Amino acid sequence: MTENNPGSAVGSLDPADDAPEWTDAMFDAAEFSVGGEVVRTATGYLGKTGVVRGRPAQRGRAKQQVTLRLDPDVVERFRESGPGWQGRINEALRRVVGL
User: Fold this and answer.
1) DSSP label at 43?
2) DSSP H/E element including 18
3) Residue 42 has pLDDT above 90, yes or no
4) CA 57 to chain centre
């Protein structure tokens, strides 16, 4: 078992070493505040590829998370169509129930 030594050096765990360099787009999308007061709100959030402009606004009620068991071939068919496959399942279900 390893020993917990509070005097040991952190080593390569310095977050500043791993932080990506900020781009102009990141600064443009970031929240700006002075003295704790927000001067400009953020216009997006930072994703793996840089600035993402955010999710669409909620229309009416929020979606409900559920657990649903589907046949593997059904899931595979929707996944083959690429990102957004869960939303396409939702659209297909809405059509079937007449919404």
Assistant:
1) S
2) helix 15-18
3) no
4) 15
Beta carbons of 51 and 25 less than 8 angstroms apart: yes
The tokens describing 9, both together, are: 């050096």
| Domain map (residue ranges) of the chain | 18-55, 62-99
* Distance separating alpha carbons of residues 47 and 28, to the nearest angstrom: 14
Q: Is the pTM of this model over 0.85?
A: no
* Strand-strand pairing, 37-40 and 32-34: antiparallel
pLDDT surpassing 80 at residue 54: no
Under 8 Å between Cβ of 80 and 88: no
Strands of the chain, DSSP E: 32-34, 37-40, 45-47, 50-52
DSSP 54-67: -PPPP-SSPP----
Q: How far apart are CA 60 and CA 37, in angstroms?
A: 30
Per-residue confidence band for 53, with pLDDT thresholds at 50, 70 and 90: low
